[in-house]
Amino acid sequence: MTTAPVLDADALGRLGEQLGDTDMLCRFIHRYEAMLDQRVERLQRALTARDHEDWMDAVLSLKTSSALAGAEALSRLAAELQEDFASRPPTPVLWPAMERLTEIMECVRRLAAETARQLRLFLQQDPSPA
Predict the structure, then answer these.
(1) Which member of 51, 103, 110, 127 has the lowest number of beta carbons within 10 Å of its beta carbon?
(2) Where in this chain does the record put each HPt domain (predicted)?
(3) Contact 4, 72 (CB under 8 A)
(4) For the residues of 54-113, what is the DSSP string, one character each?
């Protein structure tokens, strides 16, 4: 799948500059991290239910929120998953085999956990805009 860096500190720096407020940047990162597990679980529920529409909505949410939060690898993985599932015939949706779905979710979970860990490390540094 993806080989992008887990966290793009430059993107977080640019976001901090746009926000102009270190506290606001920290709150945004905390909010993203707090919602990350919920976004991953929504993906799991969509896969379990084989709900293509919910899957596409959940993966788009993960992709865009991750891009904003500087979670480059997770955003790229979500984009790859979005493309893969979007290219499948809509009726009936041809889902990958269950073991492939399990692999996908394990990869998403591992990357989400590493992203959260790196965001916590980022917050321990001085995230002040330059």
Answers:
(1) 110
(2) 21-122
(3) yes
(4) HHHHHHHHHHHHHHHTT-HHHHHHHHHHHHHHHTS-STT--PPPHHHHHHHHHHHHHHHH
CB 22 within 8 A of CB 128: yes
CATH of 9-124, picked from 1.10.3470, 1.20.120, 1.10.287, 1.20.950, is 1.20.120
Please calculate the CA angle 24-73-121 and round it to the nearest 5 degrees.
45
If you average pLDDT over residues 26-50, what whole number do you get?
93
**Domain range summary for the chain, segments of one domain joined by +:** 9-124
What would the pLDDT profile of 81-109 be if each residue is shown by its tens digit? 999 887 776 667 777 777 888 899 999 99
